[in-house]
Design brief:
The complex is a heterodimer of chains A (about 475) and B (about 60).
Chain A (H helix, E strand, L loop, with lengths): L3 H6 L2 H9 L5 H18 L3 E4 L1 H16 L11 E5 L26 H8 L3 E6 L33 H8 L5 E6 L5 H6 L3 E4 L19 E6 L2 H11 L29 E5 L9 H16 L3 E5 L7 H16 L1 H6 L6 H10 L4 H9 L1 H13 L4 E5 L19 H8 L4 H6 L3 E8 L5 E8 L4 H15 L7 H4 L3
Parallel strand pairs in A: 2-3, 7-8, 7-9
Antiparallel strand pairs in A: 1-3, 4-6, 5-6, 5-10, 9-11, 10-11
Helix pairs in contact in A: 3-4, 8-17, 10-12, 10-13
Chain B lengths: L3 H7 L5 H22 L9 H10 L9
Classes of the chains: A alpha/beta (about 475), B mainly alpha (about 60).
Chain lengths: ~475, ~60
């Protein structure tokens, strides 16, 4: 019989197959995850809420359905947990905040409803940056999640709890959200795979908004195949989200193993590599060499004017978030964490004309990406972070003047793709001298998720980059 | 002219240094938006961005939704 640690070491695809084939029961898998969430999960500050009794009842029900030969879908009986911002009817969504601590919902997020239909269990709410407003993972209200690779280091944010939970093998997959890098940055800090899909590819109905123009919902997983599976289950038009696309959803797993031979991959020295620390730049350049060995052609490009994307993303986030939070800002400013309050306050400072100009400038950046990258290549390869993952202490800037500059720098590589809405996937690419993971990202044309996943899988298969696990995840609990 | 926005920010209870930092950053980014937007063609948005997005997505009419 598999030990709980064996069970938790399985990827999403593997665990789903094991439950489907009745080699493992949903109750066994769920109990293993619940035990780990209650021990390691609490130590890592990854858990926002959990109802073990309910989770085990759901798992027992899934086992009974399977015994009757009635699987609901591809994730039948698989225990998952998600960032604490996806609403579920009758349950609290606290958003990593004090303000919404008692926020019992009457709606269920479309992405959760879709995972429900696929048979998945939703066994816990995972910690996050307060209101998803920050990229490092710090949270003054609910506590800062710790990185399973070294608990002194940040997980990245804002999907901090999901990243900690996945890296520690507490659950096999999770949903996050990404407004300026909030899926890709934590995935990068914790050696995971994180996908920010195309704007409109995944419904945002029933998910906490941060910035309507830039918010994306997507999967965080431990392998590329898991990411493809999750994305396929949550993608597609939703009448409850008018910004969701009616375009047909690809079969993201279909050509996952087809490799990158003949693909053209763009690499931008200026802006991305020349700003990165030597170890990060070397990691991305080595990834480019791997792609070349696998038959892709790497093309050096320059994207003129891309510099404007990061600061304009800051401006848009600040304004839209301040508008969403206006009521709480006026009535309960004292209940926000200081960093969050500072970020939201910035939005009050901009005249409306500046906001519209920031939106208008998206055309300039997208046109430059088209001409420089997508007219010549299929994908763009870039770092996720400019520097190695920092410690919690050194990046805790709650009371430091100038923290907004730090935040702007942290999202330097990730935010341009939120700004123009194109898809991007974060993939681990080794470790830096401090022992923490490093990562690259691949970005593509709108709705090119299938191609991104295929390229990411080719790299993963060649380098086995998603196989290493933190020591903490290998120990029996 | 007095700036109501600055007053609103100071009224949130941020430390004086933090409020000043927030306002200074906003002024700097706002100036960047203003300067950069001058280079844009006249009256192209939001249609221009959406059309380009659609074109890159392989939708000739620019409609990705």
């Amino acid at each position: 019989m598999a030990t709980p640690t064996d069970l938790r070491s399985l990827t999403l695809v593997e665990l789903a197959a094991a439950i489907r084939d009745r080699r493992v029961s949903s109750v066994e898998a769920t109990r293993a995850c619940l035990d780990a969430l209650a021990t390691t999960g609490v130590k890592l500050n990854a858990v926002a809420g959990c109802d073990p009794e309910r989770a085990l009842e759901d798992a027992a029900q899934a086992d009974r359905e399977l015994a009757r030969g009635e699987p609901r879908g591809p994730l039948h009986g698989v225990p998952l947990a998600h960032k604490d911002m996806f609403h579920r009817r009758g349950r609290v969504s606290a958003y990593g905040s004090r303000i919404a601590a008692d926020n019992v919902r009457s709606d269920t997020a479309t992405v959760l409803a879709r995972l429900d239909r696929a048979g998945a269990l939703d066994i816990a709410r995972l910690n996050m940056v307060e209101f998803a407003a920050g990229p490092t993972g710090h949270n003054e209200i609910t506590g800062t999640p710790r990185n399973p690779w070294n608990p002194e280091y940040i997980t990245g944010g804002s999907s901090s709890g999901p990243a900690a939970a996945l890296a520690a093998r507490l659950v096999p997959a999770a949903l996050g959200s990404d407004t300026g890098g909030s899926i890709r940055i934590p995935a990068a800090c914790c050696a995971l795979v994180g996908m920010k899909p195309t704007y409109g590819r995944v419904s945002r109905a029933g998910a906490l908004p941060l910035t309507f123009t830039l918010d994306h919902v997507g999967p965080i997983t431990r392998s590329v195949a898991d990411c493809a599976l999750m994305l396929g289950l949550i993608a597609g038009h939703d009448p409850l989200d008018p910004t969701s696309s009616e375009r047909a959803v690809d079969d993201y797993s279909r050509d996952l193993e087809d490799g990158v031979r003949g693909l053209r991959i763009a690499l931008a020295e200026r802006y991305f590599l020349d700003q990165a620390s030597p170890e990060i730049a070397q990691g991305v350049q080595e990834a480019a060499r791997v792609f070349e060995r696998l038959g892709a052609r790497v093309i050096r490009v320059d994207v003129p004017g891309i510099e404007i994307a990061n600061p304009m993303t800051s401006l848009i986030i600040a304004v839209e978030a301040a508008a969403f939070h206006a009521k709480w800002l006026s009535e309960r400013p004292q209940d926000y964490g200081r960093q969050t309050l500072g970020r939201l306050a910035a939005g009050l400072a901009y005249p409306a004309v500046r906001y519209v100009e920031a939106l208008n400038l998206r055309q300039k950046v997208l046109a430059a990406l088209k001409t420089a990258v997508f007219d010549a290549a299929d994908l763009l390869l870039a770092p996720v972070l400019l520097a190695p993952v920092p410690t919690i202490a050194e990046s805790d800037l709650a009371a430091n003047p100038g923290f907004s500059e730090f935040v702007v720098r942290f999202g330097y590589c990730s935010r341009p793709f939120n700004y123009v809405g194109v898809p991007a996937i974060s993939v681990p690419c080794g470790f830096t001298a401090n022992g923490l993971p490093a990562a690259m990202q691949l970005a593509g044309r709108p709705f090119a998720e299938r191609l991104l996943l295929r390229a990411a899988r080719a790299y993963e298969r060649e380098t086995r980059c998603t196989e290493p696990a933190p020591r903490l995840a290998r120990a029996e609990h | 002219m007095p700036d109501d926005r600055d007053d609103e920010i100071r009224g949130l209870g941020l430390a004086p240094g933090e409020a000043a930092d927030v306002i200074a950053t906003a002024k700097r980014l706002g100036a960047m938006a203003r300067e950069s937007a001058r280079e844009l063609p006249f009256a192209t948005e939001p249609v221009g961005f959406l059309r380009l997005f659609g074109e890159l997505a392989g939708e000739p009419d620019g409609d990705t939704h």
